[in-house]
Amino acid sequence: MPLLSVLDLKTYFYTEDGVVKAVDGVTFRIEPQQTLGVVGESGCGKSVTALSIMGLVPMPPGKIAGGKIILHRDGRDIELTSLHPKGKEYRSIRGKEIAMIFQEPMTSLNPVFTVGYQIMEAIMLHQKVSKKEARKKAIEMLRQVGIPEPEQRVDEYPHQLSGGMRQRAMIAMALSCNPSLLIADEPTTALDVTIQAQVLDLMRDLQRRFKMAIMFITHNLGVVAEMCQEVGVMYLGKVVEHAMVRPLFHEPKHPYTQGLLNSIPSLATKKKRLEPIKGVVPDPLDAPPGCPFNPRCPHVMEVCTREMPP
After folding, report:
1. With 260 labelled, which of 16, 21, 131, 233 sits at a CA distance of 20 to 30 A?
2. What is the DSSP letter of 282?
């Protein structure tokens, strides 16, 4: 049985200019202890999909207009889309069963509270332990994510830590209640390459240790190849291709996936010309009919302007 099922999810934003279909009919599922990659250019709906699962879509202007998000846990099917995002049951799931780490830890951590306090807050809320016990757990979590001298760092503020350490602190906070699913929204984008590799190694190690599933959102296909078993490619709010990682890299089916792979430099051939995808992602207020990629597609046919490919 899957851990999480997302069925025909539609998350729309209602603005003065019209309706933005940020997520438009997305379907996927995540198995226990699996890593699912979600890739695509900026503005394709990856982060809004994650926020929809977490119940963090700003309402208004956002609204889950259709579909279901179902958490399968301990023999129960919990339909998250039927719960109030600020209700008691959703709050008991958010942070405990499903946790999330964000792209830029400096804007995700509260600058006026110590790192330790922010980790302790989640522990005390979900585990109902004393402040002393929560502090011990926070120190232990900082140690597990590889932060040196955790007894000292627990009392430091976010600005006193480096970018890599802040991201490690965010991971410690997310894992402090041992969630079954971790959503990682481009967690290495703001880090340099060396620290990025360290954080990816850390996440792989913690996944084995905590036996959790990961939904890894990124625009970096190299990270997908290293971290994920399965991948969904998103474009303009839709999943245009879903496959296991190896077949996706060797035999991509959708022209958008082919374009993403062709735009990556190859170490095998020195003088191969890079082929960037022409144009930009269309304005979601004026989305093209049929396949959303048809204005940029080198293989476009008349049928593409009427319907999605099978």
Report:
1. 21
2. P
* Burial class of residue 76, CB neighbours in 10 A (0-12, 13-18, 19+): exposed
Question: Helix 115-127 vs helix 163-175: angle between axes, to the nearest 10 degrees?
Answer: 10
Whether 274 is in a domain gets the answer yes
Residue 60 has pLDDT above 90, yes or no: no
**Do 165 and 190 meet the contact criterion of CB atoms below 8 Å apart?**
no
Is residue 310, in this structure, part of any structural domain at all? no
CATH number at residue 72: 3.40.50.300
pLDDT band at 273 (very low <50, low <70, confident <90, very high): confident
Helices (H), 211-283: 221-227, 245-250, 255-262
> Does 133 have pLDDT greater than 90?
yes
Q: Which helix (H) or strand (E) holds 115?
A: helix 115-127
Pairing of strands 76-79, 62-73: antiparallel
Q: Which domain holds residue 208?
A: 4-305
CA–CA dist 103, 184 (Å, integer):
8
> pTM score, two decimals?
0.91
pLDDT at 227: 92
